[in-house]
Amino acid sequence: MPDIEVIKAEAKRLLSEGMVEVVLAFKAGETPLHPQPAFFRTPDDVDELVYSSLNQNNLATYLTRLPKESKVGMVVRGCENRSVNALVVEKQKSRDNLYLIGVPCEGILDWRKIVAKVGEAVKSVNESEQEVMVESRSGYYLVERKELLHDSCMRCSHPNPVSADILIGEPLAESDSNLAREAVEEFEALSVKERYAWFRKEAERCIRCYACREACPMCYCTECFVDHIEPRWTESGATPAGMQAWHIVRAFHQTGRCTSCGACERACPMDIKMTYLTEKLNHDMKEKYNFETGLDAQTKPPFATVTLDDKNRFMV
Amino acid sequence: MAEKPGIALFQCQWCLFSPADQDWVDNHLPSNIYLTKTPCTGRINPLYVLNAIQGGADGVMISGCLPEQCHFVTGNITARRQLEEFNDFLNHIGYEKQRVRFVWLDLQDRCMIQKELAAFEKELKCLGKAANLVTRMKVAEGEQNA
Fold first, then answer.
1. Domain ends where: A102, A124, A148?
2. What ipTM was predicted for this assembly?
3. Mind telling me how many Å the CA of B42 is from chain A's nearest CA?
């Protein structure tokens, strides 16, 4: 785990030297399982800053909601750093206005898995490298870290920030990039009927609250296609067609932009699985165009870089 | 299958160079084919394809110009990148891949669109009626969509 005092000292330095106007990070939330995103604007505020593996949100989401020219400091993990890069590529923020405090990430603990393991009323969570100690009303539980990791963090292959201005803590080993591919292939091995049954079961629990959209750093359109009234692109109610169209098109709009942070899934109040959709798209982008989102702040996603060279692939 | 399969045809307005072919598509299409004419295949949003599928089309055919013959230079390639990936994606969640077909039409060709449509219809007949993803509510004539 990175030293929290070093992160705090760096955040304080940025604010007191006037290098940034605001530092994006987490502070303790109302329950131990949900630290909440916070905007630190003065050096004194920074005392509240926390860093733990329970930080569920992707902080890059807030970049597009701050004024475009504002100078922002951020505590970023691997996936957040890649999201920032993707936003810089899409010209939503200038990299010059950002200061990234990088933290190697050991994976986010899924609060749902903790609740499933130890029950409600969690009093505190203490983590070490291998194990997590959860204190709940019914006693203490020592659980292996791997069991509590979020699904997309288990498949993560870039835990280290790729373009941070300063890295706090030791970089971790890059893990196996085949894990995501295996997950996709496992799902594709099912028959068409089974796949559709799974998709239907997941999509039709949706209540159309759009929490996934709000949690996603790449969903920054001021008007989403589902909010359009004239013309109405899809059924906007919680109807089967509307729910399915939302899930399909939301995921498809992330093609070549998703960094597999899994924030959408963690934000979903209905516990709907969504990463099996975006993982497929990421997998295809990697296979077909050798593109991974956010590894640098220059490469445009495949759908934005069309060349006539493609014709050989399509002429069959 | 007694009934003919319903086909949604998305056609780029430039891809049929011959006036006879264009006239056939505009005025003499069989009743099971529903035509949507677009300024370029690049104009076809994946949502249109999804709407056609959800509305009960058994197959979707997208016809565009050959690469390098696009009126807007790269419109067809753009479309192909997106729609091909969209098709793969639909297949991932349980929609038969064969139900979406792309055709390149050469400006020199004559009577190709009829042949392509007939071949596609034949294949769709073997596949049977589409069941997955057909969820859109039926809308009565003249009524606004929900």
1. A148
2. 0.90
3. 12
